[in-house]
Amino acid sequence: MTLKEPKLCPDGECFDEIMLRVLPERLAELEKARPAGKASAGTVVVLHQMGNHGPAYYKRTPADMKLYQPECRTNVLQDCPAQDIVNAYDNAVHYTDHFLGQTVRWLKAQARPTAMLYVSDHGESLGEKGLYLHGMPFMMAPQEQTHVPMALWLSKSFQSQRGWDRTCLQKQADQALSHDHYFHSVLSLAQVKTRWQKTELDFLAACKGPAA
Ligand SMILES: [Zn+2]
Fold first, then answer.
1. Contact 8, 21 (CB under 8 A)
2. 137: alpha, beta or left? (left if phi > 0; alpha if psi -120 to 50)
3. End-to-end Cα separation, the chain, in angstroms
4. pLDDT tens, 10-68?
5. pLDDT by residue (tens digit) across 166-175?
6. How far is the CA of 119 from the centre of ligand 1 (A)?
């Protein structure tokens, strides 16, 4: 696909928002490919961001998202003052925040019930203890590389359709969840029933009423 989006794709590399730009078109194609008479049970969309991937953190943000200055503008992180690396990284966090906000805006505008489950694949060392990036084996990796954010958003119609306990859902934010929970909880959101789903790894399971 050729993307003629000079603002979102300068120099042949695109910012994450490009995914939202092409999403409606892709979904329409899916709809066309569906066998006649078969209604859609639901669609799972994976938005795989560039996010905060390094070492060129400064390349992840358009000019109007660069709140924190000065930012490190090289791949050779060791050459930058520590604060400049943090600034470039925080600008990318700011952009992800904006991107997720745009995603929720798009989901809210849809006619059907919608939900979003966000999780980072890993954190990054920004020079703490002399470490950079995220390549350490899990057992030895510092918290900066392994402690990641996860966020769940449910549309109003999704909430009333499922009738899950809201207080219980909010309480899940205090649980020590991990990537192990992701797969099983997405199955739950999509109402996919399979023997591969482990209820103990579905953090939504506790919030479903007896009817669900
Ligand atoms: Zn990654």
1. yes
2. beta
3. 41
4. 888 899 999 999 999 999 998 888 887 777 778 999 999 999 998 999 999 999 999 99
5. 999 999 999 9
6. 11
Query: From ligand 1's centre to the CA of 36, what distance in Å?
Result: 39
Long-range contacts of 36-42 (CB under 8 A, 24+ apart): 41/191, 42/190, 42/191
Model pTM? 0.91
Distance from the alpha carbon of residue 173 to the mean position of ligand 1, in angstroms: 23
How close is the Cα of 167 to the center of ligand 1, in Å? 32
User: Residue 123 Cα, ligand 1 centroid: separation in angstroms?
Assistant: 8
CA of 86 to the centre of ligand 1 (A): 18
Q: Side chain identity at 183, as an amino acid letter?
A: F
DSSP 183: H
